[in-house]
Amino acid sequence: MRDSPRLSSVRATRPAPVPLSLHPVLVCPFLEDAESFLREAVGNRRPVLCTETRLLPVLNRAITGLERMFPGLARVCIRGGERNKTRRQKERLEDALFAEGLDRQGVVLALGGGVVMDLVGFAAGTFMRGVPFINLPTTLLGMVDASVGGKVAVNTPAGKNLVGLFHPPAAVCAVLSTLSTLPMAEIRSGLVECLKHGLIADEDHFEAAGSAQPGRMARDPSAFSGFVERSIRIKGAVVDRDPEERTGERNLLNAGHTVGHALERLSGYRLRHGDAVAAGLCWEAALSVAQGYAAPPLLVRVQAAVRRLGLDPMRDEWPDRDILEAARSDKKNAASQVRYIPLGDVGRPALPSPYLAAIGPGDLRKARALLGRR
Question: Which of 119, 61, 121, 113 is nearest to 92 (CA)?
Fold first, then answer.
């Protein structure tokens, strides 16, 4: 497999250079458009395909296409869903890779959503002390978030993504036609992540994501191209400044995720990641207003955008003390303080790097009061 270049590009219907140094990315309409890209990425290595068991019928066309590109392609299946993103599932995956004869001259193709890519990336990073993997995201959320940046992990009873490492993929190939298989809830979930990228860095992207029409987009997957490209650009720029979370720059990508991850954990991971982050963005916008970092119109805009996507901006099933307790295992915390990323306005964080502020006693109560008035 070739070395990742210092300057990669994201391409869909036209070339679109992106300053993403960790790995090359291709966004394309159909898998056939990616054949030369994937062949070059795989090189002389023996590929093993890993995907989610329940997605086999839905992704049959993509799997068949990969089998045509790589005759004799071995296949390993895992269980999907956040509740299955565990150390035990990683162990099963590793055993399956050994059974398929994967060695350090191999490469793993991760076909699926964020759970598949997280598990495969983590397993690849520790398998024989590290083998390469290639992400082939099939969800909008996976394309704009999990596939890019190199963070791979599993969940534990203590919290989400607490055991993992930094192991960037050798390449990322986002095939837009696979998005036609998504249920509406998954499209909304991905648009929330685009909304977050707009909130931290690009007001126009925020407005576009908040005004998107998921139903129309589902009928025309090419409509996702601009969202995927722009979000990858935003995330890539942040990741390049702080690839392994050493400077604090990468905290910015966790806007909405302190409360969002807490809500996911409280739901037993039955709440979709996008639904949880949508509420998390609203809660943290309310916290920003309550703590004086932002003016009330910020909260109005964030809640309105979330509602336009058909999602709940509050998720008030759990009391404040439970949310705060569930957030105590968040990786951003320090000195026993639960910390979040306050916003100054749409497209602008309130604080310089590392962007963090503490959630103090009574802050969630004040935020809940603000949320309830909208």
Answer: 119
Give residue 198's identity as a one-letter amino acid code: G
Q: What is the pTM of this model?
A: 0.89
pLDDT in tens, 14-28: 434 344 677 889 999
Token duo for residue 298:
């910020």
Burial pattern 230-260, b for ≥16 Cβ within 10 A else e, equals bbbbbbbebbbebbebeeebbbbbbbbbbbb
Give CA–CA dist 259/276, Å, rounded.
8
Alpha carbon distance 136, 73 (integer Å): 15
Angle at 97 between CA 92 and CA 103, to 5 degrees: 145
What are the residues facing 334 on neighbouring strands?
337
| d(C-alpha 169, C-alpha 339), whole Å | 29
Q: What is the mean pLDDT of residues 167-191?
A: 92
Burial class (CB in 10 A: 0-12, 13-18, 19+), 29: middle
For tokens 């191999």, what's the residue? 106
214 vs 237: CA distance, rounded Å: 27
Domains along the chain with CATH numbers: 8-181 (3.40.50.1970), 231-372 (1.20.1090.10)
Summarised one tens digit per residue, pLDDT across range 316-346 is 889 999 999 999 988 898 888 999 999 999 9
Interacting residues of 371 by C-beta distance below 8 A, sequence separation 6+:
282, 283, 286, 299, 303, 313, 314, 316
Let me know: does 122 contact 154? Beta carbons within 8 Å. yes
Amino acid 14: pLDDT: 45
